Amino acid sequence: MVERLDTMYQRLLSRKILVAVIIVVLAVAAPHIANTYTISLLIEVLIFSIFAMSLNLLVGYTGLPSFGHAAFFGLGAYIIAYISGVNDLTLSFTNNILLTLPIVIIGTGIIALIVGSLALRTDGIYFLMITLAFAQMLFSVAMRWSAVTGGSDGLIGIPRPEIDLGVWKYSFESRTAFYYFVVTTFVAIYFGLHNIIHSPFGLALKGIKSNQMRMQALGYKTLHYKIGVFVLAGVIAGIAGMLLAQFYWHASPENLYWTMSGQALIMVILGGVGTLIGPVIGATLMRLLPNITSTYTNNWQSYMGIMLIVFVLCAPNGIMGILLKKLKNNQ
Amino acid sequence: MMLVVEDIDTYYGKSHVLQGVSLKVMESEIVALLGRNGAGKSTLVKSIIGRQPASIGDIYFCGNNITNLASHRIARLGIGALNQGRSIFPTLTTLENIMIGYKNRHNQQWDLDNILGIFPALAGRLNHLGWQLSGGEQQMVAIARALMTNPKMLVLDEPSEGLAPLILNEIGKTISLMCQLGISVMLVEQNVPFALQLVDRVYVMNKGRISFDGHTNMLKENTALLHRYLGI
Fold this sequence. Notes:
The structure holds two protein chains of two kinds.
Chain A: H1 2-14, H2 16-33, H3 36-62, H4 70-84, H5 97-119, H6 124-144, H7 146-149, E1 155-156, E2 162-164, E3 169-171, H8 175-197, H9 200-210, H10 212-217, H11 222-248, E4 250-251, H12 258-271, H13 278-293, H14 300-314, H15 318-330
Antiparallel strand pairs in A: 1-4, 2-3
Chain B: E1 3-12, E2 15-25, E3 30-35, H1 41-48, E4 56-61, E5 64-65, H2 71-77, E6 79-82, H3 94-99, H4 112-118, H5 135-148, E7 153-157, H6 165-180, E8 184-189, H7 192-196, E9 201-206, E10 209-215, H8 216-221, H9 223-230
Parallel strand pairs in B: 3-8, 3-9, 6-7, 7-8
Antiparallel strand pairs in B: 1-2, 1-4, 4-5, 9-10
């Protein structure tokens, strides 16, 4: 009986299309069947999944241990705050996603290009320290330069985005509309990353992770590839930060703090480095667990810590590593 | 002339490793670089491929001065180098290992089909990960990947290391084939008998200098030299 169930389960798994259809139906139907609390949680999970996937490009695929990825997450939040936020400190000139998204992309991209060009000349622990230092520097600017950044309060009054084509206008103001907006962004980024990872560029990244010198001996200028992926990861983190700011109507210096970088790293490690879906699983766990366990305990972070230690020691490839191994054994 | 190394000195910090080394490799020629452990063979290779540039002297490849060029530029000019040990990517599949050498260059001479023509054994292993391959297969994958970069010359650092005699024979045939295809080969070896059956010309290194340079037969007859520098 168990065996028969097992083979049935296998067949189901092999029918990727069926799984995809179920996910799509659930994702589309969610706002109509779930309560607002669940939808908010889903939005958060999706946003942090995007953030974790972007970090995984560096940590998982290229072997670059960034400990300052929150810098770009926070930058995305502050940039959208300046261009669309409605308060005394911001410009608030447009909330049209067709304008704001390119500005966020270009803004985070340029900063990532500058930081990456400097930081990527180092390796390993030095790279980690430089990225951490950069993020902490941005954090202290956000905290201290209150006249511009709003200090510890951050910037408030960021509206949810709208699409404005002149003749036609649509606002994602409602929770449900914004949920669909986030889902669409997530899907676009997920499949975009899928294509990138399976392109020659993605293969080069894996090669760099495995052996950088060997890649140079094959004629690859590895620094350019690393800068390229650093900019890509920075931009995607920026988009995630933008979404979070729009969701909470608020850009907070917390988004730039090193604990945010740490959280993203934990999501990646817990879910599984170097797999596309791993960080999504990690982000889901990291956002859901505190919500579930806080009913029973106030020390969920201690349990999280224990869990992380167990994972690093027993399952270094994370939850995805365990799942993939199981799948392989069953075949 | 394919490769000309002209009187180079290479240092590791203050340690003076290569002292006035000169060497030439012609078109479609297999040249062996022999010598005991620590003779400076690997340092010479590193100087040629840009890992440890020479401080004095010049290295020319197809007329270009490559002495101080970055590794990837030297590779793009047409030197394919295989490091000592298994130079594959263990976490990539065989197919990925081979295709990572392919970079959409102009005049691409090699594609997967003619690579598999040379290494038919790899055809059934394309989806295996690098670390799952046998030593001989790994060596073939490494050569296949180097071919994908359209090399004019291959530098092979101890391809015989750790291989069974039968497999070694296969690798030897492949090296001869390279030369028939117009690719020069610089074969760096500790396995003297293996090298001597493949090459026409030999360089012997000792303590950072070239101590013999001449035809294979000259070396074979010179038992005193064989004994002194190569321990045979």
